[in-house]
Amino acid sequence: MLDQPIARIENLRVEFQTKDGPVVGVEDVSFSVNPGETVCIVGESGSGKSVSSLSLMRLVEFGGGEIAGGRLLFDRKDGGEIDLVKTDQSLMRTIRGNEIGMIFQEPMTALNPVFTVGRQLTEGLRLHRGMTKQQARDRALELMKQVRIPEPERRLQQYPHELSGGMRQRVVIAMALACEPRLLIADEPTTALDVTIQAEILALMDRLKRETGTAVMFITHDMAVVAQMADRVVVMFRGNKVEEGTVEEIFENPQHDYTKALLAAVPKLGEMRGKPAPEPMRLLGVETHDTGPIMGSDEPLLKVRNLTTRFAVKAGFFRRTVANVHAVEDVSFTLNKGRTLSLVGESGCGKSTAGRSILRLVEPQAGHIELDGVDVMALDTNGLRRAREDMQMVFQDPFASLNPQMQLLDQVAEPLRNYGQTNRQELQDRVAALFDRVELPRSFMRRYPHELSGGQRQRVAIARALALNPKLIVADEAVSALDVSVQAQVLNLMMELQAELGLSYVFISHDMAVVERVSHDVGVMYLGRIVELGPRQAVFEDPQHPYTQALMKAVPIADPRMRKSERELNFKPIPSPIHKVGYVPPPSEYEEISPGHFILTTDSGY
After folding, report:
1. What does it catalyze (predicted)?
2. Which of 135, 132, 163, 139 shows the shortest CA–CA distance to 150?
């Protein structure tokens, strides 16, 4: 029967046992997924959206949860309808992967680091489909081509750590699709991906859904992705479903206050048109300090000239250098005081390496870096240590950059102690003031990182970066893993601090809408070079380089009536940045097309 739902969740309740008694993850949720339909489940972290999907796979029990009530009805290919709550784990093993596929959010933890990609892709096929080794390998190659992985034969021999984040996520998607499941659960599958790869993967999932009639349950907090993918939308808040409707109803006529607040917090590409300088967003239910547009000054703070960073590729018994990864190639720019320069591009384009090279966390091969009149490249260890007071970094993953064994008070106080502030009372007052500044309650000073949400952890990382009153902060994908509403609050916080303290930011991101919101100037990077550089208005409203135009085209728009088709997304595969020793790349040459707006004239490979 075609009109029968593939999966029905009825009155699901999930509880987690903790030291303080049971915590309810999902209170009472019901919805269904029909064949060939995409149902998007939206909400912030902690709303219970992932718990619902893990319950359907019966994986929630392995994470300390228990299904305390409700039914999970699943229509099997040939076995009629069964209630997954009552199914024993041996039958669940047959259903998992074979009939219900799942794409997890974090590809590095979903893949096994000690097995090759080929072995992990073929395992499910041999287990569920009884294929021979050769048949499974052929099918794996076909899947790799379907998810557009370049050089698939070579990739099958590689291990997960040898692939970039986007590639790993594609492998995870290929694994989920391997046995052509009836229901595909995608848990934030594109959160950590670039716009172009995200656009391709969304189009790919849409195409596969149409071709195979698979039902898709898509979990995300990105409203633009919802507009691109969903047929129906379920909005979750604190373990409950607060609204459900077709994608048009939700976007054009939201009923619940929470849905309205979610949609209001989405930064939309193009909404800064005509505005010369960034300004904080107005958020529903959140007080913003009206700072007005942040103009910055004309006085240069950071000058980067001909920055080049390469990593050696070693091989053979003597570990000789046989090639170099050209991560950053001849990059130059100037950042003025109190302003934000954003570096955008896909993963592997060298933007993070450029940020780390400026702080000399990675040693550049060549180039000149000057911070407020100090030649950073000429400094010895002691000089560099002193210069680091003026330049700080906020990393992408706050959980990895905070120490899990230290209280937050000590972590934020650590830079102050390192640089000679030792009076305990003064330290505590200073840290309390920093917590106030990033709008965290002072009671959090006694907590540990795992007791905070992602957005709160990122605020702690910002407080720690501010501890020494730096002049420059390099923010490397500082908001890419956060929920829309939390992301909007953290961005507002960064802009308010810029207005108050005159901070300068090098903001590294792949999210074009966020970049448009915060930047004064934008540099678009491709294969280690800046291909277009200029004031935000010039680059966003009149992109000249073909790569910038392709990037803009890939950004999903939070409007279900403006969906992108796969035909529009014809991206060229990215060439390899690895060159043999002795290769001399041409220098970067630019043409100025309007005041301050430059495009690369050297062949960039795009």
Report:
1. glutathione(out) + ATP + H2O = glutathione(in) + ADP + phosphate + H(+)
2. 163
